[in-house]
User: Fold this.
Amino acid sequence: MGELQALAQRLHAAELLRAGATYEVISDSTGMSSATISRIKRFLLYGADGYRLVLDRLAEDGREPAGQGDVPPATG
Assistant:
């Protein structure tokens, strides 16, 4: 269950990054460190498009990443 929550949290951060949110806003919203947010941003820009694919499919269905409001803050 913890891994599903972490995935939902990373997808939420990726969605915020795509929307142009600052690291500070994302950190305040998710509890993630700037290092984790930076890693997600690198995957968005230079990865194999996994985040983009999932976010695009969720948007097509009119959904948001699951549990984004219910994800507890990350530790570290």
User: Anything to note?
Assistant: The longest helix spans residues 2-18.
